[in-house]
Design a protein that fits this description.
Pantoate--beta-alanine Ligase, Chain: A,domain 2, 4 strands
Length: 121
């Protein structure tokens, strides 16, 4: 007599293998989310730093030639609570002043954004 064995479900081994595959893929996605969150955070900090540097350059442009202050430093606090150290140098060359604004901040590592502009008399 031939018996015909039919299966009407999954075996325990098949279920365990599928759970292992699912777990590995979910761990990979979790790692990707951590990386994405870190990169998004860095992008926000970079935008804030560039904005602080641009703000200082706009202040110099609005001041007028004779009121542009020499080299100095100040600190600006971003919306996330990170302190940005803003340094600027002014080099006069005839009727031009070259202004370099550097913004530094530290989250997990040190970062720097530098903007350079030339202001004429």
């Amino acid at each position: 007599m031939d018996r015909c064995i039919t299966s009407k479900g999954f075996s325990l081994i098949e279920i365990l293998i599928s759970l292992v595959v699912l777990s590995i893929s979910l761990l990979a996605l979790a790692g990707l989310m951590v990386t994405t969150t870190r990169n998004t955070s860095f992008g926000g900090h970079m935008t804030e730093a560039a904005t602080f540097a641009q703000d200082k350059l706009e202040q110099f442009r609005a001041m007028g030639w004779e009121h542009i202050t020499p080299d100095s430093t100040d600190v600006a606090t971003g919306s996330t609570g990170i302190n940005y150290s803003r340094n600027w140098t002014v080099v006069e060359n005839g009727t031009l002043k070259t202004v370099t604004v550097t913004v530094n901040w530290t989250d997990q590592t040190n970062h720097t954004v530098t903007l350079v502009s030339v202001i004429s008399q």
